[in-house]
Specification:
The protein is 36% helix and 12% strand. Helix 5 runs antiparallel to helix 6. 27% of the residues are buried. Keywords: S-adenosyl-L-methionine, Transferase, tRNA processing. Its EC number is 2.5.1.25. GO terms for molecular function: tRNA-uridine aminocarboxypropyltransferase activity.
Amino acid sequence: SRPQKVCLCPFLPVHPLKVSTCLYIIQHPAEESRVLRTVPLLAACLPPDKCKILVGRRFNEDRYPELATVCRNPNTLILYPGAEATNLEEVAVMSSSPSVMIIIDGTWSQAKDIFYKNSLFRLPKQVQLKPSISSQYVIRTQPTNTCLSTLECAAVALSILEKNKSIQETILHPLQALCSFQLQHGAQIHHSKEHLLKNGLYDKPMPKNKRKLRRMELLVNNIKI
């Protein structure tokens, strides 16, 4: 669905990746209208039955019985960082069963709203990724240097669960091409908010809201938020 000179099809795998893990992408409605979203690229890399996308803000058992069943499955994981989350590497070592992973797609505030206002998402085991890589999605601003796009989260998580590092490289390939094309056609590299604050480059007015201002102070002082 892009002009031919910036077509991303040559950067996708020739055949969908063979994976045993099934992804459920819970997408905030605002993401559907974004031009440079990453979930379509992720879906193009995987078989349709291994990447299911549900769009909405509120998910209950009556309207989403399949999702409710998935959330109650003991092999289901939800990728959402926090004090209650276990590092995914530790979970992958202990489990050999095919997994189902839920990933929330949206801004950090949108993802937080979806996670805390839907009780179904507190049923699966909560996992997180170690902050070991920096985002390559340089055409959108991230809160911190180690925040990843939905596609990047999925790529890293699948490579861990499937015990196959090449999966990560394959899924990241179209994202790298997307960013390269955009930069060639006038886009600018977006440093994280953390980078801008620490280097005195943040040129927007500081928030008046005390909670938001406190979050910025934590970013500058390297305190995990």
